[in-house]
Request: fold
Amino acid sequence: MKSLLLVAHGSRRTESNDEVRQLARDLEAKVDGEYGQVACAFLELAEPSIPDGLRAMIRAGAYEVIVLPYFLSAGRHVATDIPAEVNIIRAESPGVEITLAPYLGASSGVVDLLLGLAEETPAPCS
Amino acid sequence: MKSLLLVAHGSRRTESNDEVRQLARDLEAKVDGEYGQVACAFLELAEPSIPDGLRAMIRAGAYEVIVLPYFLSAGRHVATDIPAEVNIIRAESPGVEITLAPYLGASSGVVDLLLGLAEETPAPCS
Reply:
């Protein structure tokens, strides 16, 4: 069974990191047994790091992990930094299949999400 | 008719800013006349600024604008900086209704988007 690791940038603001942790819990609630473990990790400024997050999953029995980059643009973090962190664990645990999903901003569904937010927006009191 | 202004952080990477500009075009194509103007603006590092983006819309006839923050977390930018930029134009053009939509990361649809990306992810060649 595949496991999911949500990967965010990490922030100096605890609340932002907690938003990511809550999102991982929301993911876990939603998948309802379709995936194994669901957790999150951070590129910098928060714990666990991506290698540590992957190591914890592998210790708990994961042998197939999909890494989900919670990023809006295909910058250096998505193109270079996250793959480099993942490769550390690929070298450490060659028996584990780790796959990088496209980053969130690459999803064509973002357009509908934005339009949904626009439609929910109440008119200002004026 | 309401207009939409997609607001992103802005990046030193031209490609990242161009991703946002393309997303605004995708939004425009999708709304298909349901909204008036659709454009984007940037908090920093790219043009136009949020005030300039709003001014351009107002010059072109907009009198109701929904600002869509293309951000993943409710940090200082979403909570303070974007409202401050919007307030500049509210003071300049009090006859124009400018509404702030929730930021993208606040959408409950993000969970489904992430799961969609996980499902599309091919197994690695190994």
